[in-house]
């Protein structure tokens, strides 16, 4: 119901704004909306089809891993914690292993692996769903954790900052100085998402089986952060890339070798699993096209500008600092479009300078937030979920917490 209202609001809001522009002499207002609508429909199809190859690759490898028993081993390893977070998922179920692999890929910033693994996890969770069109508690928590997913190193943001610094002739610039602030912000966002969903679903997060692994993971992340902050930006970025690539290739080889040792026909098994990739990619097309079209119409009409102007007036009236406002469009756009937010971040760096405070806050936001509506459309669309229940509200709450935290942490580190 909520998603229906939001989607309808995108179209109605965009139409009314364009109508107002037309009445004030802008004769091209409706033309911009129509162009954006058609372009978004084309982009949605291309994105979905572009996922086919990656879906085929990872679904094939996962099928080999399942036959070799590795997914089951991974599921049993995380069961002590997952049985409390996902009480509707039986111990050792393949969904546990797929969710763990998806979250690991997200932390390493491996989007090409994370999305297919996430869709596979959603399919496994759907197999336990007694009401196929209504999201289960487990599916909601998994999706919300994805939209607020922890990212260890924002490698693409660091690379863009370094490139901009060279172009602007900024000497002695440390492109990785946003690493620790970004890690803090994305951790806060993830924790807020977990706490809100746990409150709604009455999950026993006080049990040692949940908070002890979380604390240990936090200590591990903290240690890694401390180690990487002592390295030059370029070296740290190279190490993170090497670690991520090594983990993925290691998993591929491990699955294939384990399958061969278990005398499984790995090639035939891989092909059997890979065949599912095309079906999944085709199934998400309508959901992805619908969401991207709504967002495109609202953006093309200038709806985002109206929202930002309203926020700026409110903040100024409250007497709060306003030097972060140039970075705010990045946060609001990231919820709707990753590429759009990236373009806005670059614009802030070009306008104010890559070493400026607004540019630093924009980089933190870009590295610590997720494209919520895209994830919602793709993940739920892949299994035909129509009633998303409290998923959207929880995800947007985590986004809001992340944006506010990015501003506050930016002031703490850089102001």
Describe the secondary structure blueprint for this structure.
Elements: H1 2-23, H2 29-68, H3 70-85, H4 94-107, H5 111-126, H6 137-147, H7 155-167, H8 179-201, H9 208-229, H10 233-261, H11 266-274, H12 276-283, H13 285-300, H14 303-317, H15 328-336, H16 338-352, H17 357-368, H18 372-381, H19 391-414
Please describe what this structure looks like:
The protein is mainly alpha-helical and 415 residues long. It has 19 helices and no strands. Helix 2 (29-68) packs across helix 5 and helix 2 crosses helix 10. The mean pLDDT is 84.
List its salient traits.
mainly alpha; 415 residues; globular
**Sheet having the most strands:** none
Straight-line distance between termini:
42 Å
Count the beta strands: 0
Query: Mean pLDDT across all residues, rounded?
Result: 84
Q: Indicate the radius of gyration in whole angstroms.
A: 22 Å
Principal-axes geometry comes out as globular
Helix-and-strand structural type:
mainly alpha
What portion of residues is helical? over 70%
Order of secondary-structure elements: HHHHHHHHHHHHHHHHHHH
Q: Give the number of helices.
A: 19
Q: How big a fraction of the residues is strand?
A: under 5%
Low-confidence stretches: none
